[in-house]
Design goal:
This is VOC family protein. It contains 2 helices and 8 strands. The chain is an alpha/beta fold. It has a single domain, classed as 2,3-Dihydroxybiphenyl 1,2-Dioxygenase, domain 1, CATH 3.10.180. The strands form 2 sheets. The protein has a 4-stranded mixed sheet with strand order 1-4-3-2, with helices on one face. A 4-stranded mixed sheet has the order 5-8-7-6.
Length: 133
Amino acid sequence: MFTSSEAFSSFSVDDIDKARLFYEETLGLDVQEGMMGNLEIRLGNGAQLFIYAKPDHVPATFTVLNFVADDVEKAVDELNARGVTTKIFGDEDLADMPPNDEKGIMRDEENRAAIAWFTDPAANVLAVVAASM
């Protein structure tokens, strides 16, 4: 039914101005103002993301957006340098997974997977993941 249609993702935030600053300035993404004050973000692969303000916003308890990186450690270092905390989960939160390192990167050497989670100003969970996952 939808095999040839385009799709996009969206999620809410509690403060659209803080979201714009974070996604545009901190993460360096192409952010445009969309309909009704929503944010339209164009991602590197051509996909679109819509972020909208919701007064009774409740942050997602799961990862809403994953950024793929060739070098997760380098991406985490850049995020940390921009004031983004990447160690948001403790090992007890990830009980069935390999432990996080001191930067919050979870690695699975057998599968060469690496992932680090962080949040936006509205506490939505985002991640940077290894391109080899």
